[in-house]
């Protein structure tokens, strides 16, 4: 998966390092087996629905959890 980083460059991520994928109202999170997470703000994505579908497909293929908590709020 290539991720454009604000016009600065492109980073590659190996799907096999994914632990799970989560979604809340304004963000997607990809948790890695190493303990780090990647936070993707939905308002910076041109087509968040398309990305959601792609992330769900990745989770299904990897047999990892896709966690959707759209009502979750920061405390």
Automatic annotation (TrEMBL):
- YcxB-like C-terminal domain residues are 6-54
State what protein this is by name. Answer: YcxB-like C-terminal domain-containing protein
Q: Superkingdom of the source?
A: Bacteria
The protein's organism comes out as: Flavobacterium anhuiense
| Pfam name, any one | YcxB
